[in-house]
Design goal:
This protein is mostly helical. The chain is built from eight helices and no strands. The protein folds into two domains: 87 residues, no CATH class; 98 residues, no CATH class. Helix 1 packs across helix 3 and helix 1 packs across helix 4.
Length: 200
């Protein structure tokens, strides 16, 4: 009969297991899901076994075989590593979207999905906002008070799209596209006006 232990789990190992359980919830929230963090062989049956072992460990009322502990440790560590990878990727993506290139990517998607504008109109938009702000969400004209990627005047106008208008390029872009659509019809018409009058 396999050797068992009813003594409290070593503190270091117990911390790993508790952390692994927390990571499981984080993975589900992030959207990767359990299946993305484990192999097919570690799916439904393994998950139920993990929950049972974890309950035993936290309660310290049941015996757990050493090999069960080792298997659970391995899965918990795998999930911790996966969650950290997801967090790093999300952080990198968020940082990228704050750059001019990331802002242009967001604008291209919104222009196409919301207004049906293709690459010809997007090319005009790149030129227009390149001149206005260099596609920087933090751009500010001290002389006029124009703010953000679309150089809204005053910047507070963009609050209709979200309270984060000062720090979120997507909010500024959504406002800017709506302004262009309502005032000029298309980015190329707005660019033509800017070429003639140096403002839009």
């Amino acid at each position: 009969m396999p050797e068992t232990t009813s003594s409290p789990v070593r503190p270091a190992r117990r911390r790993v297991l508790i952390r692994g359980a927390a990571v499981l919830g984080a993975l589900l929230a992030v959207g990767g899901g359990v299946a993305a963090a484990t192999t097919a062989a570690q799916s439904a049956g393994a998950e139920e076994s993990e929950r049972r072992i974890l309950t035993q460990l936290l309660d310290d009322t049941s015996s757990v075989r050493p090999e069960q502990l080792d298997a659970y440790d391995a899965i918990a560590e795998q999930r911790i590593a996966y969650s950290e990878q997801l967090a790093a990727e999300a952080e990198a993506r968020a940082a990228y979207l704050l750059t001019p290139a990331g802002a242009q990517e967001t604008a291209r998607d919104l222009a196409s999905s919301t207004y049906g504008w293709g690459d010809d109109q997007f090319s005009c938009l790149v030129s227009l906002w390149g001149r206005e702000s260099g596609w920087s969400y933090s751009a500010y004209n001290a002389s006029s008070g124009a703010t953000g990627i679309p150089q809204a005047l005053p910047g507070e106008k963009m609050a209709v799209m979200g309270d984060d208008w000062q720090t979120n390029p997507a909010t500024q872009i959504a406002w800017g596209l709506a302004y262009i659509s309502g005032s000029y019809g298309t980015p190329c018409a707005a660019w033509g006006h800017s070429e003639s009058y140096n403002w839009y």
